[in-house]
Amino acid sequence: MLQKILKRSRPWYHREFYKYPMHPAIADAIKLTRPDNWHQLVLEHPHQSIGDQTMIAFTRDDKSGDADRQVKTSIGKYLRRHFSALGDHQIRDITALHVVTGVKIVHTMAEMLHHLMRGPHSCMKESNWNTHPYEVYDPALGWSMAVREEGDDTKARALIYTDADGNKKFVRSYNKDPNGGYSHSDTQLEAWMQNQGIAKVSGWDGAKIKAIENKGNVIGPYIDGHDRDCKYSADRMTFTICDGDGEYRMESTNGYANERSQYEYTCEDCGDGFDDGDGYWVGYSEDTHICMSCCNNDYIYVTGRRGNQYYIRDRYSVEVNGEYYDEDYLSDNDIVCDVDGEHRHLDDVVYIESESEHYPDDDDRICYAEDTEQYELRDNCWMCTHTDKYYTNETNYVDIDGALFHPDCAPETNETTKGESE
After folding, report:
1. Which tens digits make up the pLDDT trace of 153-165?
2. Using CA atoms, how far apart are residues 133 and 214, in angstroms rounded to an integer?
């Protein structure tokens, strides 16, 4: 009903409504919560930006609509503006889903090894084995791989297991670090997989892998997730991954499985054992000792207190420009939250004193005011037609047929200056 009224009363809205479909990210957000202002959301008619599918374009007001002028902004920023009840992780996942490109699933071992070699760093990547440890993930047993490509490069990958009932799951994804360092999760790939009905789980319990032996040794990769024990099948042709009580554990990076034995340390998170050199000290005091699996799946390396770096649980981290920070020590690293709820480095924002808010330094809502010599909201300013410089509304101007001029550069006319008596 509201859209019908708008189409009759505003010709520009009729044009936008039939020219562009509403951005699908809005529908995804509405499935989770109601917008703060239905009328404003519908009036702005947010849609995919022409020429840049990662952005949203919308019409700010009637004046902009009549001029056929749209504002372009990021999906995340727009969702924060209209859906204040959405959590950061929900906005992140919706955004990731609608900016992802180049995603596919490969189903052969040759393809899986190809993307393993050219994609994100893996402890199994540099192999001198006759049989690569990754070959236990036999596609005939239900294994495949989701990859995200950019040109000729594999930017992200994730193993997928499909069980006998057709249920698909994955444990984690890997994002390629341009410097060859630690591979964090890839939010775009994970959002795409979950949208395809592929569930994210904590471990591979119940999954089948191929049993491969070489000169009396059992071949085995480092298995991600909390389940790394393996039981032989009756015919000893396959293993079943399980949570404890297996004949072997696959948590070594040397390409071979280890027979279960007593371990030197116990993980303070999951309770599993691990040997010296296979654990990590985590927390800003680095006083908690955990196993490699828990660290890979649940923790992330951040910059935090006084600029120090350490591992914390990934849900307590904040990503800014590809770097991760401890949310408890953002101010130690000059990270602030802007007016739209996005975290940014202090170098990338300006502070508007009248609003007590930070704004992105390239935001079209702000301008530099000559009279106050600081940034202000454009809505509180006017622009001199002669110089294209901005002044706050506290500074008088000369209005000549709708064109505004600073008194120092106004043409000779009989027009009066705003604020002066006629």
Report:
1. 999 999 999 999 9
2. 11
